[in-house]
């Protein structure tokens, strides 16, 4: 067996494993039938968020990751339209302080006109929703929302089709 044969067999094994892994459903809980873990550089996203927060020009924050069999390229800007200018919050002790909304973003998928993305960037992790015209809608959450133990991924993503309607009654 020469080196070329070994390479071909290993390549075939890799693609079989990849196809099996992609087809395997990972149930999250009673309501989410399949999710995929996300890993991207949280430090890079955090640095871009801080740069955007300090900038007057409102530069885009870019986030790229692979999930659900495709590349997602989010192009985000700070959301300054959802809240009134200079929002404030009254605390339980009666003090009124400015409300920091610098972590709230909106934008689009760079390669999909008509898409819409909104969410937040906290500690270098994006959490929010991606609306697409051709592939449906996706949700992204921090993994610690669902897992008590640390995971190999920091966030999860699931498609709206994987969300089961609530079957339980009561409050």
Question: How would you summarize this macromolecular structure in one to three sentences?
Answer:
The protein has 171 residues and is α+β, with helices and mostly antiparallel strands.
Walk me through what this model shows.
- By secondary structure, this protein is of the alpha+beta class.
- Helix content is 20%, strand content 33%.
- The protein has two helices and ten strands; from the N terminus they run αβαβββββββββ.
- The protein has helices at 3-23, 42-54; strands at 36-38, 61-67, 70-78, 88-90, 96-98, 104-109, 116-122, 125-131, 137-142, 155-159.
- Strands 1-10-9-8-7-6-3-2 form an eight-stranded antiparallel β-sheet. Strands 4-5 form a two-stranded antiparallel ribbon.
- It is globular and about 75 Å long.
**What average pLDDT do the residues reach?**
84
Which strand order spans the largest sheet, edge to edge or round the barrel?
A: 1-10-9-8-7-6-3-2
Total beta strands: 10
Distance between the termini: 66 Å
- Give the oligomeric state of the chains in this entry, treating copies of one chain as homo and distinct chains as hetero: single chain
Q: Tell me what portion of residues adopts beta-strand conformation.
A: 25-35%
Tags for this model:
171 residues, alpha+beta, eight-stranded antiparallel β-sheet, two-stranded antiparallel ribbon, 10 strands, 20% helix
